[in-house]
Write a structure and sequence with these properties.
The complex is a heterodimer of chains A (858) and B (206). With 858 residues, chain A is an alpha/beta fold. Chain A is built from 25 helices and 32 strands. In chain A, helix 3 runs parallel beside helix 18, helix 4 packs parallel to helix 13 and helix 7 runs antiparallel to helix 10. Classes of the chains: A alpha/beta (858), B alpha+beta (206). At the A-B interface, strand 3, helix 1, helix 5, helix 6 and helix 24 of A face helix 1, strand 2 and strand 3 of B.
């Protein structure tokens, strides 16, 4: 018997190697085109970040190319009124009319006050184009998106202690892995295909995985120990663990503290470093010579970490001594009451972690004797997206620091603090200053001088934050509150759904409605595009070229040993007639508005193009042309697109040992005591006083604190539950849920479209599976469907991903699931971390059964 | 001649559903039909609760009830390797096999459902034949890929290598699954049904 015919062969059958944009991670892929249709996508076997694998999101995305609601005709708004539920009354216009309208307005605004232009998108390789566009135009208001939402505080902790933007860990050697409010290895985090496999290998090898999370996430499902915690109390847990580590167990890496941190720096009564009279360098105490010396004095024999000394008649203490004493207040039993984690669990977790770190152990790698610290804690948004996000994530990361596991074999590691053309620096105080190529945005250290904001993201009020994108909504809504003397005139928006990804839509709608001209680059008319005045049909990323490399090393090249690899996004199929890549349209607009030469002039340095491949004045270079010049500058003159037929990944060389395990080779120190925050806090205090605004200066404290969230500090009998959010491995932000195939697996999954409630809580409230409930926070209402489960902390309800779409044009995901962000408040001093700019995701809600079950959204 | 099998390493499966989409893409199945799925179960009670992912698909049984009940012999085991297939030319859509399969892994295609609501669109894969309306469709172990020396789509895609494809009859020592199947903890689904599945499940049993 012969098999049924299933696969049909064609002559036109092409694979285009490229880079996925299913999330931000830039995995290498190969796109299969047959008879002018994309029919499949696989992982690129030659790309180290995918190695031939691909996730559900990446695999499903080509279906979006053929979604019947794709835009191919520019539109203009017919209804001048903007608001929730308003029909935009779209009218079709030509590309020429659309571009001319926008370019004319751009010209006028640029002559008037270029700061009145705001650029909004979340599109990694597109940042290069829009940065040059913004610089040439003259606006500082760029990159309104929610990249800060998950990471403003955690990234800050990584920049301060690793000199890198992101963190990861040594899966090959680590024996004790703690994931704190995050899902590394469960396809919901950075370098996901690589880390998923590495994590599975680590577990198979016997590494213990502990996950601290209010919900038993996909990552927690694989943990030996899932530790549920009351939402937002992570800081209390971390500080009590530090107390156990330093004051109960006395386990810490003394040589690491002495050589790699400011732990020995002497602190005076005013909290500042005690400095050398002539050199002004911070002093340490030489415990052999019994005298104070500059931290880098070559005659230093041994430095003190403990005790108190007298210098010039005034008392001083090593900062480590101050830290240790400070931590005594974080009593384990008290922390247990706050976090609901049993006291014995806090102690055993701390002890297991510290012992697994094997303080003092070494390993020989390629002839180098390096410290071996096979225990690591990894953290992200779950712990960081709270009122005290910066202090909380720093406290968690300080547990890594104390056992000396930072960027050494076996331990926690930053993502590429040292690379082929970047390295961190050391300032005059001996402290680590991350490389700009890796810090990417503002550096948390050294802090900037705060001032009255000029930028609508208010970053001038956050001089130690890397980005404050969540503040755009506040700055645009209320510029006069911050002494900003202009209001935005034009918003160029695309590829970020601000209505879904920020806070409650009603508050956001007021912000968007304030902007006279919103231009949206869109493939579909999503919730944010509904507020546009002009809509320009965007391409799918399979239809475009991008700047090179697509994978920025600050986050998208795996840290640790391996190779430096660079990926090129290549066009696999032409966009449909009428749709164009937004990056090319940006260049068109710059040309029409008369600043294309300036854009390319800025681009030349921003894009790392060397002299020999310089852009030509007066020429409208395409993105592909620019990418080729970038690739030739980085890889060499023999680069050609013809080489990229099998793979779009170019490997330049193996990492050196210094790049793979940087810390033992780095002289710069990292802080256990954030001395710089004293002065910065005073400066911020002066600015907010001048502005006459309420501000929270408590985080400007060199010693780490626990700041309960607003939701904790004002208990309310009615609003008796917290609400937590978590990622699912097959959905990216608000984006992929509109994909039919993704929707199928979401519907089949017991959790994705539901609201999780602990069995006991559900019983107390008379709720059962399938009940429709109204969920109300102090800020907004929403609805959901109950899933009773053992997998969630009884004090909260759980809502996955960014769901509950309501856009008129949406057909697949509309009203499915519940939108977590809908319950969040607009930014306000009570709900932000004034140090990192992180917005607080902690809110209280009440739930009521809806009967009869019916939808009233939105 | 080889006898093929698959081992699901439950310790490695993270429930990411990449296999489900890969299968969907490979077979261009109609809306609502998936030849493989990830089922989820909860174990224990809070706070000592756990969450299990269970990938399921056609078990390509040695004693397949679906073959026994098929009145037109549309369902058959391929001679050279025992892969259980459906010949759509012979299938009359009576549904007997759907009822007979103890694993719920046979799917009747009732209508020409288009991928997107509201009618046909540009998305019609030119390179893959869709299951005939009225016929019964199911996992075919990606025989077209196996015949080319490739792995099934669900295996190739799996980011954690939780699915392992190989032979179970010793015909190819390099691809033998015997060392996994012979572990004490190895199970099949519903062994009491006597179907002798070719899909095995391993776990350290935590």
């Amino acid at each position: 018997m012969s098999e049924p015919t299933k696969q049909i062969k064609f002559e036109d059958d092409t694979w285009t190697p490229s880079v996925c944009m299913g999330c931000y991670n830039c995995c290498g892929i190969k796109i299969h085109r047959v008879e002018d249709k994309i029919v499949d996508v696989i992982g690129d076997p030659a790309a180290p970040n995918s190695r031939g694998y691909i996730c559900a999101k990446g695999k499903a995305r080509f279906l979006d190319l053929y979604d019947p609601k794709r835009l191919t005709q520019p539109l203009k708004r017919g209804n001048p009124k903007k608001g929730l539920g308003e029909d935009p009354e779209w009218q079709e216009i030509s590309w020429d009319e659309a571009l001319e309208t926008v370019a004319t307005r751009l010209k006028l605004v640029r002559e008037d006050d270029p700061r009145k232009l705001v650029l909004a998108h979340f599109d990694m390789p597109g940042y290069g184009i829009s940065k040059a566009f913004g610089a040439a135009f003259g606006t500082p208001n760029l990159h309104w998106n929610r990249a800060d939402y998950c990471g403003a505080a955690p990234h800050m902790a990584h920049l301060l202690l690793n000199g890198s933007f992101n963190g990861e860990l040594d899966f090959e050697r680590c024996n004790y892995i703690v994931l704190w409010g995050t899902q590394l290895g469960a396809l919901a985090e950075t370098i996901p295909l690589h880390t998923a496999d590495m994590m599975a290998d680590a577990r198979a090898r016997g590494a213990k995985l502990v996950v601290i999370d209010p919900f038993c996430s996909n990552a927690a499902a694989k943990a030996e120990d899932w530790i549920p915690i009351k939402p937002g109390t992570d800081g209390a847990l971390a500080l009590s663990m530090l107390n156990v580590l330093l004051n109960e167990l006395g386990l810490y890496d003394v040589p690491f503290l002495k050589e790699k941190t400011n732990a020995p720096y002497l602190i005076g009564a005013d909290g500042h470093y005690v400095r050398h009279e002539s050199s002004n360098k911070p002093l340490v105490w030489d415990s052999i010579d019994h005298t104070a010396k500059a931290f880098d004095d070559p005659s230093l024999k041994d430095v003190a970490l403990d005790g108190e000394v007298t210098i010039g008649g005034a008392p001083a203490q090593p900062s480590f001594q101050k830290v240790k004493e400070h931590l005594k207040q974080f009593d384990v039993e008290a922390a247990s009451r706050v976090t609901t984690v049993p006291a014995e669990k806090i102690r055993s977790l701390t002890e297991e972690f510290a012992k697994a770190a094997m303080i003092g152990a070494t390993v020989n790698i390629d002839g180098h004797d390096l410290p071996l610290r096979p225990a690591a804690i990894h953290f992200k948004r779950g712990s960081g997206a709270h009122k005290g996000g910066a202090h909380t994530t720093l406290a968690i990361h300080m547990l890594n620091l104390m056992v000396g596991n930072l960027d050494v074999p076996g331990g926690q590691r930053g993502v590429n603090p040292i690379g082929p053309f970047w390295a961190p620096e050391q300032d005059d105080d001996g402290m680590l200053v991350p490389a700009q190529h890796i810090a990417k945005y503002h550096k948390p250290y050294p802090p900037r001088q705060p001032k009255i904001p000029e930028t609508l993201d208010l970053n001038e009020l956050f001089p130690s934050a890397l980005f404050t994108r969540g503040m755009f909504a506040w700055g645009i809504r209320d510029p006069e509150h911050f002494g900003i003397d202009y209001t935005p005139e034009i918003l160029l928006h695309g590829r970020t759904n601000l209505m879904m990804n920020s806070h409650n839509p009603e508050a956001m709608s007021e912000v968007l409605a304030k902007i006279p001209l919103q231009v949206s680059f869109s493939t579909f008319i999503d919730e944010t595009t509904e507020f546009a005045d002009i809509v320009l049909p965007d391409s799918h990323d399979f239809e475009r070229w991008d700047l090179f490399p697509a994978n920025d090393p600050y986050a998208f090249i795996a840290p640790g040993p391996g190779e430096w690899y660079w990926l090129m996004r290549q066009q696999a199929i032409a966009p449909p007639d009428g749709a164009r890549p937004w990056t090319e349209v940006y260049l068109d607009l710059a040309e029409r508005a008369g600043f294309i030469d300036e854009l390319f002039a800025h681009g030349k340095t921003m894009w790392n193009i060397d002299e020999r491949h310089a852009l030509e004045k007066g020429k409208r270079h395409t993105v592909k042309d620019i990418a080729e010049r970038q690739a030739k500058s980085l890889i060499g003159d023999d680069f050609s697109f013809d080489q990229l037929t099998e793979s779009s990944c170019m490997i330049t060389r193996e990492k050196t040992i210094e790049e793979a395990y940087p810390r033992p080779f780095m002289k710069a120190r990292v802080p256990v005591y954030l001395e710089h925050l004293i002065d910065t806090g005073e400066q911020v205090g002066q600015v907010v006083e001048e502005l006459g605004i309420e501000w929270d200066l408590r985080p400007y404290n060199p010693l780490l604190q626990y700041f309960p969230c607003h939701a904790h500090s004002e208990p309310d009998a009615d609003f008796d539950l917290h609400v937590v959010n978590f990622k699912v491995p097959f959905i990216t932000f608000s984006v992929t849920s509109e994909n039919l195939w993704i929707d199928e697996i979401s519907q089949a999954n017991p959790y994705t479209h539901n609201v999780m409630i602990n069995t006991k809580t559900a019983k107390a409230k008379g709720l059962k599976d399938g009940d429709r409930i109204r969920i109300s926070s102090h800020h907004a209402d929403g609805e959901g469907t109950v899933k009773v489960t053992e997998l969630i902390h009884p004090s909260c309800i759980g809502i996955p991903s960014t769901l509950g779409h309501w856009a008129r044009a949406y057909s697949v995901s509309k009203y499915k699931g519940t939108g977590f962000n809908n319950f969040l408040p607009a930014p306000d001093v009570a709900y932000i971390d004034t140090l990192s700019g992180q917005t607080d995701s902690c809110v209280c809600v009440k739930v009521e059964k809806l009967s009869p079950a019916k939808r009233t959204q939105p | 001649m080889s006898k093929y099998g698959m081992v699901m390493d439950l310790d490695r499966c993270i429930g990411c559903n990449a296999c489900v989409i890969a299968c969907k893409v490979e077979h261009n199945t109609p809306a609502g039909i998936n030849f493989t799925k990830i089922l989820e179960y909860e174990t224990g009670t809070y706070p000592d609760a756990g969450r299990q992912f269970l990938p399921v698909m056609c078990n390509h049984c040695d004693d397949a009830p679906c073959i026994d009940v098929c009145p037109t012999k549309a369902t058959y085991a391929r001679e050279q390797d025992g892969i259980v297939l459906v010949d759509w030319d012979k299938c009359i859509g009576c549904g007997a096999c759907v009822l007979a399969c103890p694993y719920d892994q046979r799917f009747q295609v009732f209508d020409e459902r288009t991928m997107f609501p509201g009618g046909t669109t540009d998305f019609q894969r030119p390179d893959v034949q869709r299951a005939d309306t009225g016929a019964v469709a199911k996992c075919d172990f990606c025989y077209h890929r196996i015949d080319e020396g490739r792995e099934p789509a669900c295996v190739e895609v799996c980011p954690t290598k939780a699915r392992i494809f190989g032979v179970t009859d010793g015909s190819d020592p390099e691809r033998s699954l015997d060392h996994l199947i012979e572990q004490d903890s190895t199970t099949t689904l519903l062994p009491e049904k006597g179907t002798k599945p070719s899909v095995y499940y391993v776990s350290r049993g935590e």
